[in-house]
Prior knowledge:
Layout: H1 2-17, H2 22-34, H3 38-47, H4 54-67, H5 71-80, H6 86-98, H7 102-115, H8 121-138, H9 153-166, H10 169-188, H11 195-215, H12 219-231, H13 237-251, H14 256-266, H15 277-293, H16 297-310, H17 315-327, H18 331-344, H19 349-363, H20 366-374, H21 383-395, H22 399-416, H23 421-436, H24 440-453, H25 458-471, H26 473-480, H27 486-489, H28 495-499, H29 516-523, H30 570-574, H31 587-590, H32 608-616, H33 628-642
Helix pairs in contact: 1-2, 2-3, 3-4, 4-5, 4-6, 5-6, 6-7, 7-8, 8-9, 9-10, 10-11, 11-12, 11-13, 12-13, 13-14, 13-15, 14-15, 15-16, 15-17, 16-17, 17-18, 18-19, 19-20, 20-21, 21-22, 22-23, 23-24, 24-25, 25-26
Family: Belongs to the SRP72 family.
Coiled coil: 71-126
Organism: Phasianus colchicus (Common pheasant)
Amino acid sequence: xxxxxxxxxxxxxxxxxxxxxxxxxxxxxxxxxxxxxxxxxxxxxxxxxxxxxxxxxxxxxxxxxxxxxxxxxxxxxxxxxxxxxxxxxxxxxxxxxxxxxxxxxxxxxxxxxxxxxxxxxxxxxxxxxxxxxxxxxxxxxxxxxxxxxxxxxxxxxxxxxxxxxxxxxxxxxxxxxxxxxxxxxxxxxxxxxxxxxxxxxxxxxxxxxxxxxxxxxxxxxxxxxxxxxxxxxxxxxxxxxxxxxxxxxxxxxxxxxxxxxxxxxxxxxxxxxxxxxxxxxxxxxxxxxxxxxxxxxxxxxxxxxxxxxxxxxxxxxxxxxxxxxxxxxxxxxxxxxxxxxxxxxxxxxxxxxxxxxxxxxxxxxxxxxxxxxxxxxxxxxxxxxxxxxxxxxxxxxxxxxxxxxxxxxxxxxxxxxxxxxxxxxxxxxxxxxxxxxxxxxxxxxxxxxxxxxxxxxxxxxxxxxxxxxxxxxxxxxxxxxxxxxxxxxxxxxxxxxxxxxxxxxxxxxxxxxxxxxxxxxxxxxxxxxxxxxxxxxxxxxxxxxxxxxxxxxxxxxxxxxxxxxxxxxxxxxxxxxxxxxxxxxxxxxxxxxxxxxxxxxxxxxxxxxxxxxxxxxxxxxxxxxxxxxxxxxxxxxxxxxxxxxxx
Length: 647
């Protein structure tokens, strides 16, 4: 660093004497690049354009623009150079890779590898494998075998990424494990490299391993590995952004708080220069979905509108907007939005119309959903679409429309794919459907056509006979003669083994050996088997055989015809409303004035009869209504249970 500073100071002194010296200016630019001062270096080049022409300093200028992420400018600088040196070709390959022009990039690196022999050959092969991996991942191009020997962990890692793009996840995992071993071996040879440095270098390999686990459905293992990488705090902001995005996709609408924390990692400075366009787009989609899940409607609309402006033909932004409208119970507006998009982008109309049909079904408009589905011409003949439409029309009891769906699909296959097995299968399914809904003649017509195409098809013949048996039994008898005989249809089946097999509904008991007593019983004739005596049913205690049982005795009391409900106020009628102690039930009996031989209120001395009569009468204060003693006993029992005495 001191040497570089000394050179720079000397150049400064020299340039004060000779401002336009080309060699001195070139040295100054190189010193600034070595120091990482790319803006200052580019400023020097731009201020001395007359002296430092594009031919003289094209590489340095393009490199500064590349490092400042001015990729388009760097490409123009390289292309404007009169002489394409090896350095410019190397940089040209890097620029093309950043611009995601993978075909041109692949051709550039092939030309470099073919026409150069130096110590950088291994790096060029690594870059070439990276281009192939990018093509496989982002463009779904089947990569060609370049014949590159996996001597380094970088090459092994890139080949694993190419396999992931092809969907060969198990092979890719093995490649990544091999890359991990090679990385540990190569770094452990350097005594200055610590274990932490090795783990930091392995972070990108472990990230791809976790991604494979996630694709395989092992989300718990993937999540654990992702979190381990984040704890290492790698310096690569691109790696952190990708891992954070993948964790958000695992969380979905759950663990939203963790997802909101992970989103911050995707907003780090410089992320947009580290990731591809599709990666950045996927992150933005997930941000919009997270805003929807966290009920940030305005933020969701803003993000989805921005995405739609960037990619007007993309489906996801409009689908996110429609989903947000549905969460706000604005289904009609969501359907209108999807309808407008389908009209503007006919190429993506099928997916949009499927979503519209789903929304119509959610609203209960099954018939309108069927109309939308039938408008998707490229899917009308598909068995899945036919099945869905027939089911929906059957639910709405619109049998004619369901049969029309069958007819249109059969006609399509007759015209374009008459030999397809789907064609015959649709005819058979249509016949079964018509039979089920009473359209016998139409079903017979379909089955006859099916049988004509393959007269040896016994299954179709059996179906035809079954259909005729419902409409024309005589015709069914005539057709039954075409059935093969039972001898030709018989199969070599071991009936005993079949009946005794595991899972059989009926298993015949094996005949055991008969003992002496049992043999005598078998030989004896006329013996009657003992019957088990039936137990007599228990009768109620108050059963009276002379009285006819109540025919409604099995019904609850409230449901019987003679039930009149409970009498209200029964106890109130028994207790008088007069002065304390007075009663209404026995008042006439206690009124002495109403009886002819009533004793005097104050009995005379020596009148025994009067005394005895008066002694038999209970004073009003001591009288109790009917049922009162029992009530008192119950109350006393309750007090005893409570465990606390009165007073």
